Amino acid sequence: MNTHLILHFLSDIAANNNRPWFQAHRDEYMAAKTDFETGISKAIGRIAEFDPSVAHLSISDVTYRFYRDTRFSPDKSPYKRHLGAYIAAHGKKAFHGGYYLHLQPGECMLACGCYYLPTNILSACRNEIMANTEEWLRCVRQPDFLRYFGEPGNRGNSGFGQEHLKTCPAGFPRDFEHLEYLRMKDYCCWVNVPDDYFEGDSWLDGMCEVFMAAKPMMDFVNAVIDDYE
Q1: pLDDT tens string for the chain (229 positions)?
Q2: Labelling 141: which of 32, 154, 202, 221 has CA 20 to 30 A away?
Q3: CB atoms near residue 215 (< 10 Å)
Q4: CB atoms within 10 A of CB 123
Q5: Residue (of 40, 34, 39) closest to 61 by Cα position
């Protein structure tokens, strides 16, 4: 990808988030969008090599509208300040987890897993972790996973779990040895990357390493989620 082109446009739209400016610079948006989508097409192909379940996805399946829905937001700026793609086998709106790529000046990121799970599915995931603890630990304590994402609660340039309960979730044993995994409110892991990370094509190798490290964890959770979808 030409990250200079993409991030330059995103910086400009962040500073000029209004329709007149966007219409006057629409060609710049289309150039950035086209370049981003070319990169995402390559990402789908590479991910499909180790996860064939995403091979059928098209660009429209994984990307989002650039226009913001401002109906219920105090921020009425009409355009997003980032470009993102969610490569998920069951679609962007399914609970089944997938792979996310995010381009935004100073906030570029790779992420993998499941976010905003309903209470019943989240409880089922917690029960599965308790029932198959050894299998779960093999997923989340293998060296590559820890190297990229760390343990629950660690925050910084990477992390595992966006939100965590302060105490044990209701109905679960407080003396469970690995309570930190039951306190998680999602099973999403991520790593922030430099703004020039996505430049060219060499990033595809690094992306695959990150996502392959996260895939066993996501597969464990998806096996639970799929019983509800």
Answers
A1: 999 999 999 999 999 999 999 999 999 999 999 999 999 999 999 999 999 999 999 999 999 999 998 888 898 999 999 999 999 999 999 999 999 999 999 999 999 999 889 999 999 999 999 999 999 999 999 999 999 999 997 778 999 999 999 999 999 999 999 999 999 999 999 999 999 999 999 999 999 999 999 999 999 999 999 998 7
A2: 202
A3: 20
A4: 17
A5: 40
Give dist(CA 47, CA 214) in Å, integer. Answer: 12
What is the spatial distance between Cα 149 and Cα 199, in angstroms, rounded to a whole number?
A: 23
Check if the beta carbon of residue 110 is closer than 8 Å to that of residue 207: yes
Pull the structure tokens for residue 207. 């992306």
State both tokens at 150: 């760390």
Task: Return the bridge partners of 87, or none.
Answer: 99
How far is residue 79's CA from residue 94's CA, in Å, rounded to a whole number? 24
Site of tokens 């509208």:
65
